[in-house]
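Entry for the shared binder. Reason: the reviewer on the internal report wants the predicted structure included alongside the sequence.
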Amino acid sequence: MNRKQLQIGAATAMAAVALGVAAPAASAVERARTATTSTAPVELSAAQAEQILASPELRPHLGGDAQVLLQAVAEGDTRPEIQRGAVDSAAKAAFGLIKKAGGKVLSGAANAAKKGVPAFKKWADGLAWYHPVRLAVAALGGEAVKQLVSMLRG
């Protein structure tokens, strides 16, 4: 086991101990609440974050903050604000790549995005297997693709 795995294991064990001790009190509070204000979690797996960080197509379009957020997700951080920031950063990087490709690629992506996520994915899969935009879209997770499509629409 390397150092990162040991740190994640220790943090998980501490969280389990804390929840084991605090679970009865937390469940009593949960029963007392009348309305919950939870939003749908934005999910970007650690593997997806690592793939985005390792992608030579997306890497130049990731700023310093974006790389920090994606690295945190790659290391197992599941806080919603970190996840949301990482997804937004990945989508912005892909948008920058599409804008850089310009011309037919940009207009094709915008037209496909207007038809929805499935049409956009189909358009991206129709590009040559070595095309940087296709590789970048393949590296993104589902939430980041949805965010990219909404950016292309507007």
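Summary line for the report: The mean pLDDT is 81.
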